[in-house]
Amino acid sequence: MKVLHIDSSILGTASVSRQLSQAIVEQLQAKHDNVQVEYLDLAAQPIPHLTAEILMGQNAEQAALGEQIIQQYLAADVVVVGAAMYNFGLASTLKAWIDRISVAGKTFKYTENGPVGLAGNKQVYIASSRGGVYGDNSPADFQEGFLKTVFNFTGVEQVDVVRAEGVNMGEELKNKAIEAALAQVKLI
Ligand SMILES: Cc1cc2nc3c(=O)[nH]c(=O)nc-3n(C[C@H](O)[C@H](O)[C@H](O)COP(=O)(O)O)c2cc1C
């Protein structure tokens, strides 16, 4: 089983989403034989933002990197994404990764009947952390909802969220939220 593990929090060892994404990967390793993990730390090694030059294929180095990122995504059986909520959305480094995997003809195609995803047959886990409490369908959520839309768009139907929220609302709430999320991980 190929697992692509991605972290994007800027908070290093204090990060909640990193703690959760790591726990998910460890759970997969405990449950399955032969788990091969590839790891992207987008905070430590950000992928350059998409530019017109990159989009038009005029930068050979970036074209090669973009292809590598797409192939890595396509090859993964499971993608585990550590996604902190920053300003209601994602870390910009995670958006930069999304801009590189969302490529027509590679991970989706346009047809007469609309877009069709080409990267199905994988499971995505979103390890979500949020300072406030939003629940499942908040209009202020441009983090989990956005990620689900992007993964669905590339054909991935199985997108599950492990969430710790309210982590900036006092130590007690934070600890409870993390405990509940880690209990959820044990059910994976
Ligand atoms: C730059 C920044 C922006 C944030 N914006 C929000 C926000 O819009 N809504 C929210 O509920 N929490 C917000 N928070 C709190 C984080 O979501 C919370 O600290 C969460 O644990 C971040 O994930 P991490 O610990 O993996 O970095 C923000 C934190 C930072 C550092």
From TrEMBL:
Which keywords, in A-to-Z order, does the entry hold?
Answer: Flavoprotein, FMN, NAD, Oxidoreductase
What InterPro entries does this protein's entry cite?
Answer: Flavodoxin_fold, Flavoprotein-like_sf, FMN-dep_NADH:Q_OxRdtase_AzoR1, NADH:quinone_OxRdtase_FMN_depd
Enzyme category, top tier: oxidoreductase
Q: What's noted on cofactor binding?
A: Binds 1 FMN per subunit.
Presence of keyword Flavoprotein: yes
Q: Name one GO molecular function term.
A: electron transfer activity
Q: Which reaction does it catalyse?
A: 2 a quinone + NADH + H(+) = 2 a 1,4-benzosemiquinone + NAD(+); N,N-dimethyl-1,4-phenylenediamine + anthranilate + 2 NAD(+) = 2-(4-dimethylaminophenyl)diazenylbenzoate + 2 NADH + 2 H(+)
Q: Fetch the SUPFAM superfamilies from UniProt.
A: Flavoproteins
What domain of life? Bacteria
Q: Which E.C. number(s) belong to this protein?
A: 1.6.5.-, 1.7.1.17
Cofactor(s) the protein requires to work:
FMN
Record text on subunit structure and interactions: Homodimer.
Role this protein plays: Also exhibits azoreductase activity. Catalyzes the reductive cleavage of the azo bond in aromatic azo compounds to the corresponding amines.
What family name appears in the similarity comment? Belongs to the azoreductase type 1 family.
Q: What is this protein called?
A: FMN dependent NADH:quinone oxidoreductase
User: Which source organism?
Assistant: Acinetobacter tandoii DSM 14970 = CIP 107469
Gene that produces this protein:
azoR
